[in-house]
Design goal:
The protein has a single domain, classed as 3-Layer(aba) Sandwich (Trna Endonuclease, Chain: A, domain 1), CATH 3.40.1350. Helices cover 32% and strands 26% of the residues. It is built from four helices and five strands. A five-stranded mixed sheet has the order 1-5-4-3-2. α1 crosses α4. The longest helix has 15 residues. The chain is globular, with a radius of gyration of 18 Å.
């Protein structure tokens, strides 16, 4: 099956534990992308029925990706003249945001596929990552610095 977002096949995984993969991804981001902030989304885990209802009232949405990455990237500032052939005259910092879903062995749920497909179709950087190496490659491609 092809996806409109980045998708690491299960053979790429570096561990059978999602927690280990996520920790290695967080360590890599801190080391290689110091201008990037990371927020973890607490969608998973076991909850009592009351905790599930409370989380839903607070806006927790099943399938939302595990991490939100917010950083900046260098982008060309285009000159206004000549309009037919804009050329970069300088570079400026622009925001960049990504939504990685961290996986080890598990497959995507229907809700995760729906969220990632929606985000990709809206033009957001997102995907399924089973290795800090593949997340690093994607972040470089997306322009994180």
């Amino acid at each position: 099956m092809t996806h409109p977002f980045h998708y690491d096949m299960p053979a790429v995984r570096i561990s059978d534990s999602e927690i280990v993969v996520q920790k290695q991804c967080l360590d890599m981001i801190a080391k290689l992308f110091p201008n990037t902030r990371v927020a973890a989304v607490p969608n998973g885990g076991k909850r009592t029925r009351w905790q599930q209802q409370q989380a839903k009232r607070e806006g927790v949405s099943a399938g939302f990706p595990d991490l939100v990455l917010v950083g900046d990237r260098w982008a060309p500032m285009l000159s206004a003249t000549p309009p037919e052939f804009p050329k970069p005259t300088a570079y400026v910092l622009r925001p960049v945001v990504a939504f990685p879903e961290i996986k080890a062995k598990a497959s995507l749920t229907a809700e995760q596929t729906d969220w990632l497909t929606f985000m990709a179709e809206c033009g957001h950087h997102c995907g399924v990552f089973r290795s800090d190496r593949t997340l690093e490659e994607a972040m470089r491609k997306w322009g994180f610095r």
